[in-house]
């Protein structure tokens, strides 16, 4: 195995594209090193992305935020402007493992690992985030929901890396929230995760929303019917019940030691209601 | 595999070592640099016994490659006491009997020091969440939390 730590994205791409065997990008390594240790991956080449300035930078761009493909959660949680604009994304990042894991774990790594239970993915999807993917044929922007293609499979082609994640500009009175259910209070894998992003008009009516669920199907689920159920409402009980029903209907979960199909289906609806209310209060300026 | 030559700084001292490309920083510290204060509990990021800082950031050294240390500042438990003089946290761990077998202790001390640098006046809840990735199978955590809270008070000069 070889280890390289290039200083430009172009160099990283040409190393990854030029490797005839298995090449793996390294961001925080909190998934990759575990996989190396267990033998689940045995790369011929590891390309550390953290010496590339754009990969470790958080920048404001056209009213939104661009987060480099190797920015650790800990850096995000020290950025007050980011936390104010995207509290839901930041609370999802804050759930990724321990303090030590957050010192390294990136959004791009969480996305590329493509675990069905990845915490930041539903939050990014609700935020309509896009991944900027750079490869041998140039660069393209892909909706975050289109990156995972199966359990631990993603749609990146050989030689491609995620250079950054872009969080779009926020209209006034917009906010987001992410909640997950775990059997403990810390350090566990989501049984269900739910991200909700909301925009309100001056009268407090929801004018735009996006709802995403994690851990209830092979890949993250965008619940359009859930968003429709709350658009035009002030989250009255009927709207919230319709949101919950839509989220439960979108579930295609598995039974495992963490939760049964029935439990996951039910909890998806409960979490969606709660996350929508939190996002609503934040958008209305009631809570931070 | 061909070995890599790495220049880094450990506890303020310049250090050079050779390592395999897939060797963890934890293994480098323990097996190549003789810094065995950093412990291996799990090797998979779950227990925190291997906690160190890289450029000031608290991480699990079992989830860092040795090769990544090039040009970085590494902080380990060996850098905590100044000669014979224990750090306040170390002193408080002794006073509160916050350890039994001691395997978790270096990692918890390194993690607690990182917390108090960032937040000199944490609540008990903040200490418990910050240390949630440091497992201890002996103490039941209570004495650890009390030792950290007491050290924080003393370090604030209160
Ligand atoms: C103790 C522990 C607890 C954890 N808890 C949680 C949790 O609660 N919730 C959760 O969601 N996850 C959790 N994880 C999993 C992991 O921390 C996250 O998935 C993390 O976000 C991965 O990011 P990373 O930067 O460390 O990725 P890496 O390990 O560096 O990479 C992961 C994968 O993505 C690829 N990759 C990384 N960056 C890029 C890029 N920019 N472009 C292309 N490919 C890339 C790598 O090649 C690799 O295949 C935990 C892990 C540990 C060890
Ligand atoms: S040995 Fe590194 S976290 Fe357990
Ligand atoms: S003192 Fe034994 S594991 Fe903590």
Report on the architecture of this protein.
Chain A has eleven helices and 14 strands. With about 290 residues, chain A is α+β, with helices and mostly antiparallel strands. In chain A, strands 4-5-10-6-7 form a five-stranded antiparallel beta sheet. Chain A has a four-stranded antiparallel beta sheet with strand order 11-12-13-14, sandwiched between helices. A three-stranded parallel beta sheet of chain A has the order 1-3-2, covered by helices on one side. In chain A, helix 5 runs antiparallel to helix 8 (about 120-125), helix 9 (about 225-230) runs antiparallel to helix 10 (about 235-250) and helix 10 (about 235-250) crosses helix 11. With about 160 residues, chain B is α+β, with helices and mostly antiparallel strands. Chain B folds into two domains: about 5-80, Roll (Ubiquitin-like (UB roll)); about 90-155, [2Fe-2S]-binding domain (DNA polymerase, domain 1, Orthogonal Bundle). Chain B contains five helices and five strands, in the order ββαβββαααα. Chain B has a five-stranded mixed beta sheet with strand order 2-1-5-3-4, sandwiched between helices. At the A-B interface, helix 2 and helix 6 of A face strand 4 and helix 3 of B. Bound molecules: flavin-adenine dinucleotide and FE2/S2 (inorganic) cluster (2 copies).
């Amino acid at each position: 195995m070889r280890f390289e730590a290039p200083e430009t994205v172009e160099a990283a791409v040409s190393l990854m594209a030029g490797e005839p065997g298995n090449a793996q990008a390294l961001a925080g390594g909190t998934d990759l090193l575990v996989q190396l240790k267990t033998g689940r991956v045995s790369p011929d080449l590891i390309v550390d992305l953290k010496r590339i300035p754009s990969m470790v930078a958080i920048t404001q761009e056209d009213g939104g935020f661009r987060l480099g493909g190797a920015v650790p959660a800990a850096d995000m949680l020290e950025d007050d402007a980011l936390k104010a604009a995207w509290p839901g994304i930041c609370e999802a990042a804050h759930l990724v493992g321990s303090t030590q894991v957050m010192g390294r774990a990136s959004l791009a790594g969480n996305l590329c690992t493509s675990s069905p239970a990845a915490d930041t993915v539903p939050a990014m999807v609700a935020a309509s985030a896009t991944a900027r993917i750079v490869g041998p044929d140039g660069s393209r922007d892909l909706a975050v929901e289109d990156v995972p293609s199966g359990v631990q499979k993603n749609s990146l082609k050989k030689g491609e890396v995620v250079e950054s994640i872009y969080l779009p500009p926020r209209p006034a009175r917009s906010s987001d929230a992410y909640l997950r259910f775990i059997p403990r209070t810390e350090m566990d894998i989501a049984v269900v995760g739910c991200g909700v992003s909301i925009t309100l008009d001056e009268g407090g009516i929801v004018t735009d929303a996006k709802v995403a669920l994690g851990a209830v199907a092979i890949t993250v689920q965008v619940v359009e019917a859930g968003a429709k159920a709350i658009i035009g409402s002030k989250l009255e009980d009927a709207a919230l019940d319709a949101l919950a029903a839509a989220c439960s209907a979108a579930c295609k979960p598995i039974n495992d030691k963490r939760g049964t199909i029935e439990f996951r289906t039910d909890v998806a609806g409960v979490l969606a209601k709660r996350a929508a209310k939190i996002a609503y209060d934040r958008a209305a300026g009631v809570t931070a | 595999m061909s070995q890599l030559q790495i220049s880094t700084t450990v506890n303020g001292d310049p250090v050079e070592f050779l390592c395999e490309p897939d060797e963890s920083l934890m293994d480098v510290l323990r097996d190549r640099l003789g810094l065995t204060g950093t412990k291996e509990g799990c090797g998979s990021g779950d227990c925190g016994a291997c906690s160190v800082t890289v450029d000031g950031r608290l991480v699990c050294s079992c989830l860092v490659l040795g090769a990544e240390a090039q040009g970085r500042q590494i902080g380990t438990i060996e850098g905590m006491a100044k000669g014979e003089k224990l750090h306040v946290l170390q002193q408080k761990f002794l006073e509160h009997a916050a350890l039994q077998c001691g395997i978790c202790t270096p990692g918890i001390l390194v993690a607690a020091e990182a917390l108090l640098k960032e937040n000199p006046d944490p609540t008990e809840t903040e200490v418990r969440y910050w240390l949630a990735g440091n497992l201890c199978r002996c103490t039941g955590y209570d004495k650890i939390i009390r030792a950290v809270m007491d050290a924080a008070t003393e370090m604030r000069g209160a």
